[in-house]
Amino acid sequence: MIANLTPSLPPPRPGGGEPTPAQEAAVERMVRRFYERGLADAVLGPTFFEHIKEWEPHIALVRDFWLGAIHGSTRYRGNAFAPHMKVDFEPEAFAHWLDCFERSAHECLAPEDAAVAVRVARHMATSFRSGLFPFTDANGRPARKPG
Asked: 100: which of 32, 37, 66, 144 fits an S-S bond (Cβ 3.0–4.6 Å)?
């Protein structure tokens, strides 16, 4: 039986809850800045352009996810892992994703919120990489299928 591959995220910062309007605006700025960077990235850009067709609903969804991860908001009701199972990308994309994300978090969020966001993002990257690339190919590289 395959275990549930949805990562167990670290808890949000103590004292979290519904964010203030300023915190919500900062998280939305971070998400938009992340996608600006990602779209300009040679590895992430083509994948984003191929798989994200309706940007505003996507940004709202991702914003709500991060509001939950950072501030404990309960707006996000999805499964962050499942959609990524359908996306074709190489393991190297995780380093690009983290770089774009971490720079955006530090640029747009209060330092304590950025620290939480980066901690969660690093945990997610590790979990997603393990879940999406559970095998090793003949060259020792992470792979989606046994080989």
From this structure: 37
